[in-house]
Amino acid sequence: MALPLDLLAIGPHRDDVELLAGGTIARQVRLGLRVGILDLTQGEMGTRGSAELRAQEAERAAAVLGVAERRNLGLPDAGITNTDDTRRQLARLLRELRPRIVIAPAPQGRHPDHRVASELIRDASFLAGLAKFDPSTAPHRPLKVLYAIAFREDQIKPTFVADISDTFETKLEALRCYASQFEGATQAGEVFPTGEPLFDVVRHQAAHYGSLIRCRFGEPFLTHETMRVDDFRALEVSTF
């Protein structure tokens, strides 16, 4: 049996997790965590490229980020649903990979797949811990679900922002692997167009999030539960 994952980032389409949390993934890998990526669909409905090409690009991006696993659930692109069947499929994979932390898309999103995937991931993460849900596999429930809310300014204030100053260029390198999707683009996923090249928008947004925690680049996350602090000496980000 494979070692459990410390962190599993789940996105509806190949390239979503790189856009939303690529810097965080690369940083956690550098810190020694065992990190995986799960793409829910093959991206076959994308206007640009093809599912086969995006699969090749995703493998190159995974190598850049240094993740231990990259899987694909094979759900229909532009047709993700939160049903008994899809919850069971995802719960089985969560039981196999046994992640401690799961990263999901924001609860709101421009693409219907993003919104539905967020709900599906939360529900499947809970059900994966029920012993009788699928008795053929051992139960496992992730400790925490984090929502990657980059580019979603309609969300409430982030619960926290991850410092990706040292891995931001790695994030861009992973994104550049998706030439079929991003070369010459001005928008992608939840990135709304500003008239600038896509990579400039990504840079400016990461700088904005970084400014919230007084660093160069950051990625924002939301949790539904309140965060805990034990040692006040560990508190960071100056008030003044």
Structural notes for this entry:
With 240 residues, the chain is of the alpha/beta class. The chain has helices at residues 16-30, 51-65, 84-97, 112-127, 168-176, 179-182, 198-212; strands spanning 7-11, 35-41, 69-75, 101-105, 144-148, 160-163, 218-222. It has one domain: Rossmann fold (3-Layer(aba) Sandwich). The longest helix has 16 residues, at 112-127. The protein is globular and about 50 Å long. The chain starts with 6 loop residues before the first strand and ends in an 18-residue tail after the last strand. The model has no long low-confidence stretch (mean pLDDT 95).
Layout of helices and strands, plus pairs?
Blueprint: E1 7-11, H1 16-30, E2 35-41, H2 51-65, E3 69-75, H3 84-97, E4 101-105, H4 112-127, E5 144-148, E6 160-163, H5 168-176, H6 179-182, H7 198-212, E7 218-222
Parallel strand pairs: 1-2, 1-4, 2-3, 4-5
Antiparallel strand pairs: 5-7, 6-7
Helix pairs in contact: 1-5, 2-5, 3-4
Secondary-structure element string: EHEHEHEHEEHHHE
- Percent of residues in β-strands: 15-25%
Structural class by helix and strand composition: alpha/beta
CATH superfamily: LmbE-like
Unreliable spans are: none
What is the CATH topology descriptor? Rossmann fold
Distance N terminus to C terminus? 50 Å
Strand order of the largest sheet: 3-2-1-4-5-7-6
Supply the key terms.
240 residues; Rossmann fold; alpha/beta
